[in-house]
């Protein structure tokens, strides 16, 4: 069958739909993980990884013409939401060459940056898939997740993250009929920041009121965003880490518009009107006073690989670490005014917002009960590496909010990274070789995945 014939068939069948291209086959890298049962019996599961749709080449159906370049939509192909949705196709991903993603049997590495041809790529986000077109779903409550991580080259300003998000198992194909790409092409991302940088929201192109980013040459923001609850198991680099729970008024994928989405960059006083708890109830030992716990040469020595175990019980979410055969428990908070709980508890969530003088979005969204509801629903596992054009990841490893007095407000110091060095321009120039390696991922009832 000729190419033009194919194109004709495709567009009759899928008129008005978020399309798939056919220049590059989509071949998901394979990754094994280990599923354990309550009795400690474990089995290997063959899974796949899929690249987020938002990072893919988006071009005119059966044509090399770009729909989206350098942070902008092509205004001929994308002269309306429906035309853009119908005329643009998501392409298969070149995992290693373009994105620097390499999977072994039970490990996967994500390079921070790659250079290829006359172009380059910064950052990536992968989802765990159970099959070609379904994400792997995990229900966290009363379970634990263990993984090994090597982030010794992940320096200041870069975030190597492992999150659970309440995405649809099929990437939104059933919910939104115009989405014909689905989980096979990594569609349907949402999180508690309600990102408006997504090129497709609810199966349609997000072209309305799109504004290219002033700082990120490949990104921008449209009118619509996609919100959903999120449990951030691991935001990290070699200097700091945090774990945090981010709840929303809704349980699953929700579309927001304009200001209703915005988490942090609109006018002061309005900034917490956002729908979800973007800041979250979090635990970062450095921020809580235990500054000698985590880092190169510290108790958890980030110059070498280590294991992170996260346990999700009804009363607490906590983590411990294993390095060189030794179990290292999460330290208690050292700041006055916080209970001695070494993890997320209702009390830690309530008291830290008071101590840090933050609006209580966690409480307003229903607090611990809503958090437990999130942990009781199936979620998608996302792994990413990125720098941050909005907040320079200062909230992770440096000082935020920035205060020019000598007495930073409690909770503003989150790590030892200098404020001025976290700008993506500097980070990309200084650490082009950074990469994170995730391996030996294990999941099962609390106590089943590791002996420690
Ligand atoms: C895609 O896969 C098909 C079937 O396996 C193969 O014939 C074709 O050459 C592949 N196309 C590309 C661009 O790799
Ligand atoms: C959408 O495409 C159709 C068919 O090419 C065209 O007639 C219509 O004018 C386009 N819509 C807009 C808003 O330009
Ligand atoms: C993956 O497993 C196969 C079979 O057990 C082995 O031959 C191969 O070396 C392994 N590859 C890596 C990267 O560990
Ligand atoms: C690991 O532990 C062994 C035995 O306790 C010790 O000899 C070795 O130096 C440790 N290695 C590292 C990298 O800490």
Automatic annotation (TrEMBL):
<dbReference type="InterPro" id="IPR013320">
    <property type="entry name" value="ConA-like_dom_sf"/>
</dbReference>
<keyword id="KW-0119">Carbohydrate metabolism</keyword>
<dbReference type="InterPro" id="IPR001722">
    <property type="entry name" value="Glyco_hydro_7"/>
</dbReference>
<feature type="signal peptide">
    <location>
        <begin position="1"/>
        <end position="17"/>
    </location>
</feature>
<dbReference type="GO" id="GO:0016162">
    <property type="term" value="F:cellulose 1,4-beta-cellobiosidase activity"/>
</dbReference>
<dbReference type="InterPro" id="IPR037019">
    <property type="entry name" value="Glyco_hydro_7_sf"/>
</dbReference>
<keyword id="KW-0378">Hydrolase</keyword>
<dbReference type="Pfam" id="PF00840">
    <property type="entry name" value="Glyco_hydro_7"/>
</dbReference>
<dbReference type="GO" id="GO:0030245">
    <property type="term" value="P:cellulose catabolic process"/>
</dbReference>
<protein>
    <recommendedName>
        <fullName>Glucanase</fullName>
        <ecNumber>3.2.1.-</ecNumber>
    </recommendedName>
</protein>
<keyword id="KW-0732">Signal</keyword>
<keyword id="KW-0624">Polysaccharide degradation</keyword>
<keyword id="KW-0326">Glycosidase</keyword>
<comment type="similarity">
    <text>Belongs to the glycosyl hydrolase 7 (cellulase C) family.</text>
</comment>
<keyword id="KW-0136">Cellulose degradation</keyword>
